[in-house]
Amino acid sequence: GDRLVSRPPLRLAMMEEETRRGEKPKAEGNFLTRLIYNLEMLRVSKSSETPSEGNGMWSGEPREWAEERSLAQKASELSQKGFVASFKQWVAESVAGDYDQEEIGRRIDQTISSSPVVMFSFSKCPFCLRSKELLLNEIGMDKSKLTVIECDEDAQGNAIRAELGKRTGRTSMPSIWIREQGFVGGCNDGPGIVPLHKEGKLRGMLEAANAL
């Protein structure tokens, strides 16, 4: 598969929503869902790379995981079907706890409508990094036309993830939205912006959204 190019973290160069940032999301729900959430955060921490010049100062999960033929990609695809997908949605909703669904839905709608391209992301996710690199570095998208919400760094992030799961059937990140197209999946699937780019369709979508 394609290797990721080592570059400084892209989100430092992108326009990101500043409101509600600085406060991490909190895990709600019952003991089981809190345990699952905390174990997942521990797994991310333990598997993350050590920042270096060689990896572009990346401190997230291994960049190789975002390759189309990686085991992590295959696992991600399997987790978006059937019982596993339903279980992940249940966990996402439980971890989010009680929240104002109308408020969160309104925030999602306003974010999507206010920007040509929106990416709901996790800051340590290699699939999210790969998507940002494709849009900004390889295609040359205008960075001011991309809005990124890092759900693991946003106080409403867990609720946003739960609501996105209800809308799209996917709780995995990234969740990418292009004006006039709506939801286009994640990095490698759903259909995903990497396959769309390889099929020669992504640039046209971005041009139609006035993102280039």
TrEMBL record:
Gene3D superfamilies found in the cross-reference section: Glutaredoxin
GO biological process per UniProt: cellular response to oxidative stress
Residues annotated as domain Glutaredoxin: 117-181
InterPro entries (alphabetical): Glutaredoxin (IPR002109), Glutaredoxin_subgr (IPR014025), Thioredoxin-like_sf (IPR036249)
Superkingdom to which the source organism belongs: Eukaryota
Recorded coiled-coil stretches: none
GO CC terms of this entry: cytoplasm
An example Gene Ontology molecular-function term: glutathione disulfide oxidoreductase activity
PANTHER family: GLUTAREDOXIN 2, GLUTAREDOXIN-1-RELATED
Name of the protein in question: Glutaredoxin domain-containing protein
